[in-house]
Amino acid sequence: MSPTIYMIILSTLATGTIITMTSYHWLMAWVGLELNTLAVIPIISTMHHPRSTEAATKYFLTQAAASALILFSSMTNAWNTGSWDIMQPLTPPSYILLTMALAMKLGLAPLHFWLPEVIQGSTMTTAFIITTWQKIAPMSLIFLTMNNLSTSIFLLMGLLSSLVGGWGGLNQTQTRKIMAYSSIAHLGWMATISSIMTNILIMNLLIYLIMTTSVFLSLIISKSKTIQDTTSTWTLSPTLTIIMLLSLLSLGGLPPLTGFIPKWLIMEELILQNFNLLISMMAASSLLSLFFYLRLTYTTALTLSPNTTQTKFKWRFYPNTLTMFTTVPATISIFLLPMTPLILL
């Protein structure tokens, strides 16, 4: 793909998200989501491989179905209330359809089946875009319409997503699929808090984006597509190995690191709302996620290849623009916890 076309596609992607985030009319929000979908499909299918074609087709079908549901729910609401305003109260059929559509857009369980397959059929960079940038527009719609959506449906979906994200990632060997199930688990935590306290939702989304960016950039630089590939990261750069180790532990939510902030605040808020059983099950499911993060950190930093490799080790590591971009998200995703009182003020 030529640089000009790639720039046009990326600018369309950015424009679609901005239109959705800034619109107060359902039709404009739908237009933004459609621009987003149409921009990502050529990015997925650039590899000219059957897997990428299959991933692009699956992505198109699920996103088109979700967009159609959003349009149908907004039309139903406009028919009943006479208003296309996003901030207007929704009728019960409209908000149930909208909840399902946004869950499908994000990849929340039980509508998550497309996400691991699409990410596995994409390149690392495309998987990074799908798991980070593509979550912003649907999340902004959830933020705008949260007073009208069903709390119980989001709590149930959040619990299901955290369980599915934990169980699904256990038997994976591909780093892209592990990151896909990680995304499902994190979105589950966001879904549970979305209807209770939206400022924690925004902070959780920002921290998730920064942590996922840090891990994906580390995987892209080290060219680690499978767990076995991560065993040779130390030959590329010891510093990168340490960054990847700490970023993965932060993504798992271990206390000294940044990833513990959203889990801590969500657990505290749900306990205050007397959702004790729900938060106990979610905390248990996060241990499943932590297991496969720990497995990745173990192979990255604490193991060597069991056999003598026949290839030349890559000791000479030449920094490039991508490595410079990695430092900021890596630092934030590791050391932000001491600044939590300042964030909450």
TrEMBL record:
EC code(s) of this entry = 7.1.1.2
Kindly indicate whether the keyword NAD belongs to this entry.
Answer: yes
Topology versus the membrane: Multi-pass membrane protein
An example GO biological process term is: mitochondrial electron transport, NADH to ubiquinone
Query: Keywords for this entry?
Result: Electron transport, Membrane, Mitochondrion, Mitochondrion inner membrane, NAD, Respiratory chain, Translocase, Transmembrane, Transmembrane helix, Transport, Ubiquinone
Q: Note the superkingdom of the native organism.
A: Eukaryota
UniProt-recorded Gene Ontology molecular function terms: NADH dehydrogenase (ubiquinone) activity
Q: For this protein, what reaction is catalysed?
A: a ubiquinone + NADH + 5 H(+)(in) = a ubiquinol + NAD(+) + 4 H(+)(out)
The similarity annotation says:
Belongs to the complex I subunit 2 family.
PANTHER family membership: NADH-UBIQUINONE OXIDOREDUCTASE CHAIN 2 (PTHR46552:SF1)
- UniProt name for this protein: NADH-ubiquinone oxidoreductase chain 2
What's the source species for this entry? Anolis carolinensis (Green anole)
